[in-house]
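User: I'm curious whether this sequence folds into something compact or stays loose and floppy. Could you predict its structure so I can see for myself?
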Amino acid sequence: MNSTIWIALALVLVLEGLGPMLYPRTWRKMIAALIQLPDNTLRRFGGGLVVAGVVIYYMLSHVGG
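Assistant: Here's the prediction. I'll summarize afterward.
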């Protein structure tokens, strides 16, 4: 696997860890609010994040490389 992928994974882990580390109560409230959402809404939200990630990756790989 390309080292760029590992760097990206490391950055994702850092960013994902910041919420519970810095704001644990707010993070819990956010997770509790997500639990209340219907499955269809969560799927759309997740799909939007995937699309955004692919677009950003595509833009960075074509601009920088």
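Summary: The CA atoms of residues 3 and 9 lie 10 Å apart. The longest helix spans residues 39-64.
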